[in-house]
Amino acid sequence: MTEIQDRLLGKLTPAQGRREWRPYLYLLPAFVMIAVFMAYPLVDTFILSFQEVVTLGGEARWVGLDNYVAVVTDPLFWVAAKNTLIFSIGMIIVPLVLGLGLAMMINRGIKGQSFLRSLIFVPVVVPIVVSGIVFSWLLSPDGLVNWALVTIGIIQEPARFLNSVTLSLPSVMLMVAWKRTGYYMVILLAGLQGLPSDVYEAAKIMGKSRWAMFRHITLPLLKPAILITVVLGIIDTVRAFAHVYVMTGGGPSNSSEILSTHFYKVAFSYFNFGKGAAYGFILFGLSLVLSIIVIKLSGGTEI
Amino acid sequence: MSVADRISGLFDPDREGVAWERGLRYVGVVLAALFVLVPLYWMVATSLKGSSQIGVFPPALVPSPATIEPYLSAWQTGPWGQWFLNTMLISGGSTVVALAISTPAAYALARFDFPGSNPVYLLFLGLLMIPAQILLIPLYNLLASLGLVDTRVGLILVYSTFFLAFSVFLLHSFMTNLPESLEEAARIGGIPEWKIFIKVILPLVKSGMVATGMLIFVFTWNEFLFALTFLQSEQLYTISVGLQSFQGIHGATVYNQLFAMSTLATLPVVILFALFSDQFIEGIAGLEME
């Protein structure tokens, strides 16, 4: 992260290497792949976003900014945007807070920490479709969660989590938190492990409270690690798809529709490719701008 | 020294901390472990229940009697063997292609000072930030014009490109940590550059390639959106697409079978992770910490 910041801010030049033509050769295959399967499609999307596809795979008509206007004047876009904002709490904030808490607990030396760390990481490798299916079943009216809640007496009747306008999105977020906490924990744990112990020793001698140490030492020093999780979280939030698609399909009545699933419907269910392309570019711009802001902010305020 | 060892040896303002605090820490971690385990347990438990134990409320916490019948009947309702094979071929192929292309690229970035190295580094960073699905439409058109829609090769090319940047970053961090003395010695010894890359660098970075390759394998094994969009004939589905179609067609009636296949789909990646968890975790952490 520090290196990324430095490179972004232009502080870092590549270290004592050798000047020659070979590196270009080593990079060539990567560039060819990227040019064909990323750059070209990216340009293609950009062009497509100003066109209306008249016949599939053929004729297109220039329509200027119409597609972009169509996206931002689509009320569903704003519903999805609002949901994405809420969804990012489950995608970023909850796993970040839980992950940080767990990382600190494990970091302070507890028995079997290596095993626990691995165990909490396991959901990261579970296929997203499987996670979605399992949580749908856990949250179904005759599922385990309802059984537990009814037995303890928190609710009287089994709730229809995934068919409820208010509960569908939080249900997906619960699964996401399950899946991501271990991921963030590992990143933050590696960050904690790099913190200098003498600073803490000094603070302890000065009689600083535990909270003061956390607030004034741990958090600032951990900032690069926290920020990279936020950047990854932003990118993944914009990418998230199967999470919603498998559990709720965006329903009921769009209550769990997020930008990426709505985008998919515009492009591939309604076959509105031009509008889909414009939608895609708005998504890309959003994640790029947010990520760069976060990285710049982190580099701008040196500790 | 593993990450865990290094962690436990570091600062510990709590070592003389009071017992109830330590107790609280255990409670927190144990709760987290339960939160992780319950869904996984429930998946496996449901997969071992006979049809008569499904859709019963309250649900039985332990399958009794446990039966592998759901596995057997599910296996016959779809071309699961074919789907597993497809996923294996696609993930394996993508991993090999991505590694083959990203290793030299990472080497160039980590070990050479050349005009444009900074922009190239930032380009790879930018690639990481492209939300994959915005390229779905043009990629679909591109694959169609190449005759690669609904083929495993098409998906392998797309996956390996999309995991390229990720792989370059990971390998880059492995390579910058390597000592340069061996390379220098080889250069002074007059060994040709291409031989240095193959004979000196590759063996040194092998463990990094294994870690990176496994992460790519797991991520492609689990990928859903591209597979859903680019694969159309049932014969070519990956496990994830197959599971999703199975869920769609059969609904709640055969949940035990759905979970039998979900368990099978999860098993390979969890086994891989169990075998190499340290490399996985250091890989993920290393990407961010470089």
UniProtKB/TrEMBL annotation, chain A:
Record's subcellular location: Cell membrane
Membrane topology field: Multi-pass membrane protein
Annotated ranges, domain ABC transmembrane type-1: 81-294
Organism (species): Halarchaeum grantii
Residues annotated as transmembrane: 24-43, 85-106, 118-139, 182-200, 221-242, 277-297
Top-rank taxon, per record: Archaea
Annotated keywords: Cell membrane, Membrane, Transmembrane, Transmembrane helix, Transport
Main location: membrane
GO CC list: plasma membrane
InterPro entries in alphabetical order: ABC_transporter_permease, MetI-like, MetI-like_sf
Stated family: Belongs to the binding-protein-dependent transport system permease family.
Protein known as: Sugar ABC transporter permease
Keyword Protein transport carried by entry: no
PANTHER family reported in the protein's UniProt record: ABC TRANSPORTER PERMEASE PROTEIN, INNER MEMBRANE ABC TRANSPORTER PERMEASE PROTEIN YCJO
PROSITE patterns xref list: ABC_TM1
GO BP term (any one): transmembrane transport
Automatic annotation (TrEMBL), chain B:
Compartments, as annotated in UniProt: Cell membrane
Stated family: Belongs to the binding-protein-dependent transport system permease family.
Membrane spanning residue stretches: 24-44, 83-109, 121-143, 155-175, 196-221, 258-276
Topology versus the membrane: Multi-pass membrane protein
Gene Ontology terms describing biological process: transmembrane transport
Protein name: ABC transporter permease
Keyword Transferase: no
Pfam assignment, any one: BPD_transp_1
Species: Halarchaeum grantii
Key word Transport present: yes
Occurrences of domain ABC transmembrane type-1 (ranges): 84-276
Entries under InterPro entries matching the protein: MetI-like, MetI-like_sf
